Amino acid sequence: MRAGNLDRIIEIQRRTTGLDLYGTPAETWAPVATMRAQLLKNATDNHEGQRGETTDAVLTFRMWFLDGVTLENRVTYQGQQFEIIGVSEIGRRVGLDLTCQRVGR
User: Which residue from 100, 87, 90 is spatially nearest to 59, judged by alpha carbons?
Assistant: First the structure.
C-alpha cells in the first residue's frame, strides 16, 4: 500500500449512548478516528423492493490497519454516512479493506 494512493479522508464512528436535552438516553455516533484512505471501488446497484425502486451506493475503501474496526462501526465520507458491511485485513495487520453501503438510501 502506497501512502500517495491514500487520497481520501474518511471518519470511522462508533455508536454510543448519550442523554438528550430531557435526560432521555439517545443513541449518537462518536468519532473514533479520521483516516486517509484509497477509494477502490464505487458501485451502484438498482433494485426494486417494498419501497419501490432504490439505488444503493457501495464503496470499498483501503486504509492503514486500525484495531477494533468492526461491522458495528460506520464511515462518514463526503458528508454521507455508510454502514460497514465487510472488513478484510490486508497482510498481517498492515491495512484494511472496508466495504460500505450508504445509509438512508
Answer: 100
